[in-house]
């Protein structure tokens, strides 16, 4: 699996916008585990609105380009 040089939305591991896939590629984890962890934290924590955080990350994180991958 290619690792992102900087934090970007993934081109390869997308389900909706590539946010969780980009985080997984950046830290070197499986995208499935990052998604499951995000859903678990969102469901178990009333103080963390997961959908709102996802939308903010979608807006803030740039799309990965071919130069984004090492």
Notes on the protein architecture:
The protein has 70 residues and is mainly α. The protein has a domain at 19-65. The chain has 3 helices and no strands. It has helices at residues 19-27, 31-44, 50-60. Helix 1 (19-27) crosses helix 2 (31-44).
Q: In angstroms, what is the radius of gyration?
A: 12 Å
How much of the residues is beta strand, in percent? under 5%
Euclidean distance between termini CA atoms: 10 Å
Low-confidence stretches: none
Class by helix and strand content? mainly alpha
* Helix fraction by DSSP (H/I, runs of at least 4): 40-55%
Number of strands: 0
Count of alpha/pi helices: 3
Question: What kind of sheet is the major sheet?
Answer: none
Output mean pLDDT.
Answer: 83
| Form type | globular
The H/E string reads HHH
């Amino acid at each position: 699996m290619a690792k992102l040089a900087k934090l970007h939305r993934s081109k390869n591991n997308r389900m909706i916008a590539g946010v969780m896939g980009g985080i997984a590629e950046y830290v070197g984890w499986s995208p499935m585990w990052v998604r499951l962890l995000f859903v678990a934290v969102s469901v178990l924590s009333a103080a963390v609105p997961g959908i709102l955080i996802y939308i903010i990350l979608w807006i803030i994180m740039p799309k990965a380009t071919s130069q984004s991958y090492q």
